[in-house]
Amino acid sequence: MVEAGLHFDMSAEDYFSDPCPEPSVTQSLLRTLIDRSPRHAWFEHPRLNPDFKAEENTKFDIGNAAHRLLIGRGKMVNPVPFDNWSSKDAKKARAALAEVGVIAVLEHQYDRAEEMAEAVRQQLRSTEHAEAFVSGHGEVVACWRDEGFWCRTMIDWFTPDFTQVYDLKTTSMSCSPYDVAERPSVEGWDIQGAWHEAALETLHPDNPSRRKHYFVAIENQPPYALTVVQLSEADLTMGRKKIAYALTRWKICMARKSWPGYPRSTVMSQPRGYTETKWLQREVAEASSGNILEAG
Fold first, then answer.
1. Which of 36, 108, 135, 271 is positioned for an S-S bond with 40, CB 3.0–4.6 A?
2. Are 193 and 184 a contacting pair, CB within 8 Å?
3. Rounded to whole angstroms, how far apart are CA atoms 82 and 263?
4. Domains in the chain and their CATH numbers?
5. pTM
C-alpha cells in the first residue's frame, strides 16, 4: 500500500493491481461510468471484483513494446521466437511469461516496435518536443484523495519542471493532423488529460498556468508517422465536466456499496440525424425526377 504522492519507481504490475489503501478510481473507470454503468466499473476493478482477471489482448503487443522502448519503463515485454500465437508452444511460452508479469511479444512484432520507437525519436527531434521521452520522468504514478476517496493515474512522461505532460497513443488509424485533432473527445483523451491535471494540481500545484498536455499519436505501421496533439482548453473543460459527473457516481456507489447496471426502463429508438436526412433527400429526388419503378 502506498501513501498519497507522486511515485517514480512503481512497477506497472503494482499500479494496475491498485496499491492505494482503499479501492481507487482511474480515468479508464471514469470513462466506463460515463459510457456504460457502475456495474461495469465494478467488474473492471481489481480490488472490487473478487473474480477479476486482467484482459489479455495481443493487439496491444506492439504498442506495449514500443512504449517500453521509448520510456524505459512500463509493462515488461519479452520477444519470443514464433511467427504467430496459433501453436501450443507459442501459447505455452506466452502463458509462462504472463505468470511472472511479462508480456510475450512475437519477434517480428518486437522488431517493428524497435523501428517505431526509433522513428518516433527521429520525428520528435525536428519539433519543439525534442526533449519528450528524453529529459524528464516516465511512468510516474500519482495517488491522491478527493473528498476522502482515493484516485490514481499513471503519467507516461512529464518534463523536469512538471509543465509539459505527454501521453503515447499507438494506433492502426490515421494520425494525420486532419484526422487526429478531433480524436480527444472521441477516444477519451479529454478525460485523461483533465485527470492528469487534477493529479498534478493536487500533488504538484506549482506553475499550473504553464502546464500543457500533449498526446503523441503514432501509426503502428511503417513509416510510423506521428502527430503531436496539444489538448485545448475547450477539451480540458469538457474533460473536467465529464470527470465531475463520473466521480459523483463513483463516490455514491462506493458509499452505498451498490453498483447498479443499466436502467430497466424501455428506450425508444431514434434514427440518426444523417440517415433521416439522407432518406428524405432520396424521397424528394425521386419524386421530382419521376424515377419510380412501374409495376408489371
1. 36
2. yes
3. 47
4. 5-55+127-269 (3.90.320.10)
5. 0.86
